[in-house]
Amino acid sequence: MIRLYGSAMSGNAHKVRIALAFLGLAWEEQATDAAARRTDAFRALNPMAQIPVLVEGDFVLRDSQAILAYLAARHRPGDWDGRTPEERGAIMVWLSHAANEIFNGPALLRAERLFDWSIDRERAAAVTDRILSVVEAHLAARDWLVGDRLTIADIAASPYLALAPDGGIDLDRWPRIRDWTRRIAALPGFPAMPGWPAAS
Prior knowledge:
This protein has a 4-stranded mixed sheet with strand order 2-1-3-4, covered by helices on one side. By secondary structure, it is of the alpha+beta class. Helix 1 packs parallel to helix 4 and helix 1 crosses helix 7. It has helices at about 10-25, 35, 40-45, 65-75, 85-115, 120-140, 150-160, 175-185, and strands at about 1-5, 25-30, 55, 60. The protein folds into 2 domains: about 1-75, Glutaredoxin; about 85-185, Glutathione S-transferase Yfyf (Class Pi), Chain A, domain 2 (Up-down Bundle).
């Protein structure tokens, strides 16, 4: 049985939930709050004291992007992680954006509002405007970030963009991003998350 350490409001943990649900895999979730992440037992799983962490038998993996890459390679090779070298490279670009610009922009603005994080708001807002412009333009002529189907690029990049209104961002200003996140939510098996707009 797969065990996922996460929290209900974590966009990074939700990336893994989406992948597990779309793959039809059973998992057990271990709610892991900030106090639990400081324990020696959790640090033995992830010395960075961060969620999510996936445990499958004796295999332990941290970092949401790494977990998505593992699940794709194990259960949906090619389809989710790229059929060609070009697709694989393009998918990696979006995993990098998810870990960098999307986290340091929309995700931080959300964390400031919901969890009272202390952030450089001006910098986070600037990063947000830049990455939202890039994603909006990229989606002008396509339904998915890479290729003609959902890949781990979409799963990695979408949560903190779908949840951007939690950080004070009006997604009506970014209609292609809004519609893309709703398209993901409309897929069979999508696990609901508070704050993620329902499929239209």
